[in-house]
Design brief:
The structure is a single chain. It is built from 11 helices and 13 strands. The chain has about 325 residues and is an alpha+beta fold. The protein has 4 domains: about 35 residues, no CATH class; about 100 residues, Band 7 domain (Tetrahydropterin Synthase, Chain A, 2-Layer Sandwich), CATH 3.30.479; about 60 residues, no CATH class; about 110 residues, Nonspecific Lipid-transfer Protein, Chain A, CATH 3.30.1050. Strand 4 and strand 5 form a beta hairpin. The longest helix is centred in the N-terminal third of the chain and has 17 residues. InterPro entries: Band-7_stomatin-like (IPR043202), Band_7 (IPR001107), Band_7/SPFH_dom_sf (IPR036013), SCP2_sterol-bd_dom (IPR003033), SCP2_sterol-bd_dom_sf (IPR036527), Stomatin_HflK_fam (IPR001972). Pfam families: Band_7 (PF01145), SCP2 (PF02036). This is Band 7 domain-containing protein.
Length: about 325
């Protein structure tokens, strides 16, 4: 008798059979071998481990992970010890991802980092018939502060004529797309999060700001043309992760003069899934599409060749 939350994987003369249950299951003695699989959500804890961050800091970080089995047969056939393998995979993915972040990003963006970690672990454990439902990072302590020489804000140059009344990050983006050679570009190796400090404004407005996706798309819309559509010829659907939610945007360069906006399109050429920071980094030139894809930060649904046309789009929009 198999309860509703379990399944039985049967091997008949060494060959796996479809999972059986719930309810009454008949087993042939001496011919069938069987194993129970629990489909309920389980959890485990990754004990705090030391991680050296991108800016030279040292932090102690742990995680709580919840997972469930969606394919009983794969969970039995693909891996010998499912719990141990999942724990080791999640721990390695956590240390690998956090080593690419700064101490400040780990402190302030744990929810987004947990989303990226969940996606990375799912990619590795999906062939095992396992799915991670929730990841929660716990920052125990900062054992060593970051090296000051490896971090620092990007200083804005004097205001461009005609843009004095525009807010700091929007002005920076406008100057970037208008081809002002005096705009300071983000230095390589400082991460994919771009921050701006407006030293020309009053002290009360100075601080770290970010360009939103909507502001970026508004700047992209100014560069649309029929020539751009002829060179790219594809419709990109973006699924952007922001604060645990998926926001949809599109850049349609398949007909006319092209258009951009929020929402979904009926038949996109390719669908791209990434975080908001990674999308901004792509268009600001600090992250290349192929590097984002190979590192798992860019998820592609569709033809990869079409997805890589995004790099051509970025080159045409961004001044060289």
């Amino acid at each position: 008798m198999v309860p509703n939350y379990q399944r039985i994987v049967v091997f008949r003369l060494g060959r796996v059979r479809p999972p059986k249950g719930p309810g009454v299951v008949l087993i042939l003695p001496l011919i069938d071998q069987w194993q129970k699989v629990d489909l309920r959500t389980r959890a485990f804890n990754i004990p705090p481990c030391k991680v050296t961050t991108k800016d030279g800091g040292l932090v102690s970080v742990g995680a709580d992970i919840q997972f469930r089995i969606w394919s009983p047969v794969m969970s039995v056939v693909a891996v010998q010890d499912l719990n141990a393998s999942t724990r080791l995979t999640a721990q390695k993915a956590m240390t690998h991802n956090l080593s690419k972040k700064t101490v400040r990003e780990i402190q302030t963006e744990r929810l987004k980092l947990a989303e990226h970690l969940s996606m990375d672990v799912n990619e590795m454990t999906r062939p095992w018939g396992l799915e991670v439902d929730r990841v929660e990072l716990t920052l125990e302590s900062v054992l060593k502060g970051p090296d000051d020489s490896l971090s620092g804000p990007v200083i804005m140059p004097p205001s461009m004529p005609g843009l004095e009344g525009i807010a700091g990050p929007i002005q920076q983006l406008a100057m970037h797309f208008l081809g002002n050679s005096g705009v300071s570009q983000p230095r390589e190796g400082l991460g994919d999060t771009v921050s701006f400090v407006d030293e020309q404004g009053p002290p009360a407005s100075a601080g770290v700001k970010r360009v939103s996706v909507e502001e970026l798309l508004a700047a992209v819309e100014l560069r649309l043309s029929e020539q751009l559509v002829q060179q790219v010829g594809a419709c990109f659907q973006f699924q952007i992760l922001r604060d645990g939610l998926v926001n949809n945007y599109f850049v349609d360069l398949s007909k006319g003069s092209g258009k951009v906006g929020a929402g979904t399109v009926a038949e996109p050429s390719v669908t791209l899934q990434m975080s908001e920071e990674d999308l901004l980094a792509l268009f600001l030139g600090t992250l290349r599409p192929f590097a984002a894809y190979t590192s798992g930060r860019l998820k592609v649904h569709g033809e990869l060749r079409t997805a890589m046309k995004l790099e051509e789009l970025v080159k045409l929009i961004r001044p060289q």
